[in-house]
Specification:
eight-stranded mixed beta sheet; single chain; five-stranded mixed beta sheet; 5 helices
Length: 358
């Protein structure tokens, strides 16, 4: 049962001191570490008779975060949703607070700026994402907030990066809540989407940035959990010999958009396919600022595709309390001198334990 929090929240409901603006380094670079689908829970909540299994999963999950941060030394970390496994019925206030504290500890001890988007599972049982965001915001260098404006969802915000001189906004990071579920025609749940009011807010804010930038769109990338429907365009049955196929129930499939790099191992899961939710992507094209978007949600997919000039990336999952083979994250390097070109690298973190079932 939901706890009764409203689905619209304003930033001014939670006041805090504003941290220093982000800016490109003296070398003109800015590094972002994308960590998604951590799905963390406290081992004590897992009733597996073999206690080594949940303990091992917890240790492995925290090691993925620690190792990624250590390896990449980022200027910012973005959590990509399903950061905690919010469907765990044993969750209490203390457990969820401790879980969030544990997954941000490798970031907090290095005082790295943190951005947060939520997935469909974070608030599934009743500890709403607004409640969780206030926990993340207790970390002084968290750059996310409840919302930049009075729109649907939680954590919708635009974080700007100033040029290396600190004089103007040179880049924008859009963090969007793709929400959780909506009712489908069979009365069950299908994945939700970014709502029209969120898109309208994005367009209004992007226009403000454009005017302040001399009439030119500020180059931008976007992070959200559930991918856009355009990612699945051209989905059709194929054969095992076709390139970039994925298997499902003994059959092989391929999507129409070419995978430019990486791996596809499951069908992408965008919003409710019974309905047409394509206007978010169309808004990016019209506005002209976003040239790349980064998603989680599909734990074993780790690829780049280009749809009508916009790069769409999937990042592999990081956590061991859910399905998947490889675990890791994605490094993104922005270049002040070439703002619409970026370097990105998928990073896998090896297991450190050999516990059966982990």
């Amino acid at each position: 049962m939901a706890m009764g929090f409203p689905r619209k929240w304003k930033t001014d409901r939670f006041k805090r001191e504003t941290p220093a603006p982000l800016k490109f380094g003296a070398d003109g670079k800015f590094k972002i570490l994308h960590i998604t689908d951590i799905h963390c829970v406290q081992p004590i909540m897992d009733d597996d008779e073999n206690r080594a299994i949940p303990e091992g999963r917890y240790k492995e999950t925290l090691n993925v975060i620690e190792s990624l941060v250590e390896k990449t030394n980022p200027d910012m970390v973005v959590f990509g949703g399903d950061n905690v496994s919010g469907y765990w019925e044993e969750f209490t206030y203390d457990y969820i607070k401790k879980t969030i504290e544990d997954i941000i500890e490798p970031i907090k001890k290095r005082n790295i700026p943190l951005g947060v988007v939520f997935g469909n599972h974070d608030g599934e049982i009743g500890f709403h994402t607004e409640f969780q965001m206030m926990m993340y915001m207790e970390y002084a260098n968290c750059r996310s907030n409840l919302n930049d404006a009075d729109v649907y969802g939680c954590g919708n915000c635009c974080i700007t990066i100033k040029d290396s001189k600190g004089e103007k906004d040179a880049f924008a990071l859009w963090l969007m809540d793709s929400n959780d579920y909506e009712t489908n025609s069979e009365g069950g749940n299908s994945y939700d989407h970014v709502h029209d009011c969120q898109i309208n807010w994005y367009e209004t804010r992007a226009e403000e940035l454009k005017k302040a930038n001399g009439g030119e769109p500020v180059p931008a990338i976007l992070f959200q959990h559930i991918p856009v429907q355009q990612e699945l365009d051209g989905y059709r049955e194929a054969t095992e010999k076709d390139e970039y196929t994925f298997e499902r129930d003994g059959n092989y499939y391929v999507i129409g958009n070419k995978i430019l790099s990486g791996r596809i191992r499951e069908v992408p899961c965008p919003p409710n396919m019974e309905k047409v939710y394509r206007n978010q992507f169309e808004s990016w094209k019209k506005t002209g600022d976003i040239f790349a978007a980064f998603f989680g949600h599909d734990h074993v997919n780790d690829f780049k595709m280009n749809v009508e000039g916009i790069d769409l990336y999937q990042t592999i999952g990081a956590g061991y309390f859910t399905y998947g083979k490889e675990r890791g994250g994605r490094l993104i390097v922005l270049d002040e001198n070439n703002p619409r070109e970026l370097y990105t690298e998928s990073i896998e973190i090896p297991r450190i334990t050999d516990t059966e079932g982990v």
